[in-house]
From TrEMBL:
SMART domains found in the cross-reference section: HLH (SM00353)
PANTHER family named in the record: BASIC HELIX-LOOP-HELIX DOMAIN-CONTAINING PROTEIN USF3
Species this protein is from: Nomascus leucogenys (Northern white-cheeked gibbon)
Gene Ontology biological-process annotations: negative regulation of epithelial to mesenchymal transition
Disordered: annotated span: 1-33
Gene Ontology MF terms: DNA-binding transcription activator activity, RNA polymerase II-specific; protein dimerization activity; RNA polymerase II transcription regulatory region sequence-specific DNA binding
Domain BHLH: 18-69
CDD domains: bHLHzip_USF3 (cd18910)
Protein name, per record: Upstream transcription factor family member 3
Length: 88
């Protein structure tokens, strides 16, 4: 294997730049997946379609909706399913 001259060797600066670019790409991909997941959750919760929802609003509404579903489920289990109640 031929030896590299000083000019051909990657410098620390180039190496750091490459590492930063790689990290930034990984972080963009991670954020994209998180945003897609939040948007999927937003499609499942009942709300006005006219509202442009922020991520915070989607997560808050999802928490409230899941809490209500759990409460209704617990109530049905306690009552043996005798009371039929609709969701929202």
């Amino acid at each position: 294997m031929p030896e590299m001259t000083e000019n051909e060797m990657p410098t620390k600066k180039q190496h750091r730049k490459k590492n930063r670019e790689t990290h930034n790409a990984v972080e963009r991909h991670r954020k994209k997946k998180i945003n897609a997941g939040i948007n999927r959750i937003g499609e499942l919760i009942p709300c006005s379609p006219a509202l442009k929802q922020s991520k915070n609003m989607i997560l808050d509404q999802a928490f409230k909706y899941i809490t209500e579903l759990k409460r209704q489920n617990d109530e049905l289990l306690l009552n043996g399913g005798n009371n039929e109640q609709g969701f929202y």
